[in-house]
User: Fold this.
Amino acid sequence: MMASPNLVTAMIVPPPLLLDNDAVRRHLSLEALLPAIEQALIALSAGRVVQPLRTVMELPGPDSLLFVKPALVGGALATKLITQVPGNAARGLPTMIATLVLLDPASGVPLAVMDATWLTELRTAAVSAVATRALRDRSPKRLAILGSGALARSHALALTAVVPISDIRVWSPTRANAERCAADINGMACPDAESAVRHADIVVTVTNASTPVLLGRWLKPGALVHAVGAPRPGWRELDDEAMGNYLIADHRQAAETESGDVILSGAKVRCEIGEVLAGKVQVPAGVTVIFKALGQAVEDAVAAQLVYAAATGTAAVA
Assistant:
């Protein structure tokens, strides 16, 4: 017995919208992303987000990994797939490649498949920017960035949007990379990490390091550190002295399970940034703050929803 034409038509799933990185860049603005990220972090800390811990799978190449990160918040259901393949540099390919699938939470129908390269770069920096706005005043700040890749550049963009930056100092293990990055962001390349960090009000660590590159004794009292790299339990960017400061996480369970900086130092997470943004926690004035951000899937979901809404001319569902 043949199915009726109406039944066949009803079973057809429309193809998802395909968006390359250039399209995502056109449709994702920092101005729209900042408030969306703030609300997502508040929702995460309030328990209004369905977000299992990410899955990490080892790939055949040295230090090569696949990360799978799903999240559901409000009207946004998304999963991001990230491959980290250090050997790609020799192939002329990015070390990290990110792809995001946005789905309709009611039906499970894929709405869009998008290159998540810029999405990841901008939303990561937007998290740091939102935290900076909540934790520091708007007096001019000296910024130090350890690392010279895409996240260094996106952080310079996002942080200058929320606080006046008097100067930017950049360090990378490869001096030529630091000089190129510094030229791109109107900064100054430093010969070593210590000279970049000394006297900095805000420090960003966005390196591929697995052992500490930032020492606590270099930090200016009252500095704010955005510890973004070292996403594995055995990897470090900060030493024990640095981690002994007031520690805030984007997600407590993730930090205590996935962050080598937290696990190996034995540092105590004082609160989540969502609790600070919601006004539930007051951070003591004048303390040196370490903000450990591992990049939460809910951030990708709300960013992808913004991209899809802008690309289709629809309103994002809160």
About this structure: The chain has 13 helices and 14 strands. The first helix runs from residue 5 to 11. The CA atoms of residues 129 and 159 lie 5 Å apart. The chain has two domains: 18-119+298-309, 136-296.
